[in-house]
Write a structure and sequence with these properties.
133 residues; 5 helices
Length: 133
């Protein structure tokens, strides 16, 4: 089983809430998490020559295999979780401009709607093994 790395915005309240839920839902222990500005995040940006300043997105990454950003990242994530979550990935049949624009609307307004933390919170000790530097 290949582990997927989820890169997320550490100070984002919405992102942290989702990461917390994903830790609980990941019964097969197949997800790992790192913030976009972590060493893992910087390694990703360097490898794929992506400017981290212009990327306001979650990243779904299976090293040496594939990566996805924005709405596509969420679809890949739900497919990886499987079970009932796989049903959510059916939204991938919607036209790309709808899913991408919806994702970008939320991403652009996430701090205003949900808030921003001063710093990334420490993970629950139960899930500490899931978090990369």
């Amino acid at each position: 089983m290949k582990v997927a790395i989820i890169l997320y915005d550490g100070p984002c309240v919405l992102c942290n809430a989702w990461v917390h839920r994903l830790c609980k839902w990941d019964k097969k222990d197949q997800l790992r998490f790192a913030t976009l500005d972590s060493k893992t995040g910087q390694d990703f940006f360097r490898e794929f020559k992506i400017n981290p300043v212009v990327l306001e997105s979650v990243v779904y990454w299976i090293p040496n295999e594939m990566y996805a950003i924005e709405a596509q990242a969420t679809f890949e994530l739900f497919k990886k979780l499987g079970g009932i979550f796989k049903l959510i990935s059916f939204l991938n049949i919607l036209p790309n401009f709808i899913t991408q624009n919806s994702y970008k609307l939320i991403a652009r307004n996430r701090y205003r709607w949900f808030g921003k933390l001063e710093s990334c919170p420490l993970p629950n000790p139960k899930y500490a093994h899931k978090f990369l530097q």
